[in-house]
């Protein structure tokens, strides 16, 4: 293998790894109805899957609330620190195959995450059958 070929392969692998990591980090959630910032979410990888947890909220009235309407292991857990995105896997340019929990009503939906072209905007979509709701979160810098 020539040096040029090896350099190209290494460059490709580095670029591919960086683009795969773009979704990881902290994101500011934006309420799709009001446009107001609601919380900071940390998207992280564990055992090859993508998860998200709420690490801060902007409304002090929500800061110490628990997920009263949730069921299972999320029941009565504090909102701050709650892992509410679970088990997504990368499929080309989207992350899917997992779930997202709405702590406001305790309902769980199928989830899909996708970076917008600017890479500072994350499209977050929750599905229930054929219906879905989409939010756009902004990267925390």
Plain-language structure description:
This protein is mainly β and 141 residues long. The chain has a single domain, classed as Beta Barrel (Lipocalin), CATH 2.40.128. It contains one helix and eight strands. The protein has an eight-stranded antiparallel β-barrel with strand order 1-2-3-4-5-6-7-8. The protein is globular. About 11% of the residues have low confidence.
Attribute tags:
141 residues, mainly beta, Lipocalin, eight-stranded antiparallel beta barrel, 13% helix, globular, DUF2147
* pLDDT < 50 stretches: 5-20
Instruction: Give the rounded overall mean pLDDT.
Output: 87
Please give the alpha-carbon distance between the first and last residues. 41 Å
* Strand count: 8
Radius of gyration: 17 Å
Number of discrete domains: 1
Q: So what's the overall shape?
A: globular
Q: What profile does the largest beta sheet have?
A: 8 strands, antiparallel, barrel
Specify the helix fraction band: 10-25%
According to CATH, the fold-level topology is Lipocalin
- CATH class equals Mainly Beta
- Helical segment tally? 1
Helix/strand/pairing class, anyone? Answer: mainly beta
CATH architecture verdict: Beta Barrel
Q: Spell the H/E element sequence.
A: HEEEEEEEE
Task: Provide the spatial order of strands within the biggest beta sheet.
Answer: 1-2-3-4-5-6-7-8
Which band does the percent of strand residues land in? over 45%
Pfam families: DUF2147 (PF09917)
Domain DUF2147: 25-139
InterPro entries: DUF2147
């Amino acid at each position: 293998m020539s040096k040029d070929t090896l350099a190209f392969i290494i460059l490709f692998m580095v670029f591919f790894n960086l683009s795969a990591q773009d979704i990881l980090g902290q994101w500011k959630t934006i309420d799709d109805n009001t446009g107001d910032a609601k919380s900071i979410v940390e998207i992280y990888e564990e055992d090859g899957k993508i998860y998200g947890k709420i690490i801060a909220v902007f409304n002090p009235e929500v800061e110490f609330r628990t997920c009263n309407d949730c069921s299972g292991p999320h029941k009565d857990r504090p909102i701050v620190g709650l892992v509410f995105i679970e088990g997504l896997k990368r499929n080309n340019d989207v992350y899917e195959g997992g779930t997202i929990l709405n702590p406001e009503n305790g309902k769980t939906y199928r989830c899909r995450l996708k970076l917008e072209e600017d890479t500072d905007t994350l499209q977050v979509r929750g599905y229930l059958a054929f219906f879905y709701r989409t939010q756009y979160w902004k990267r925390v810098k």
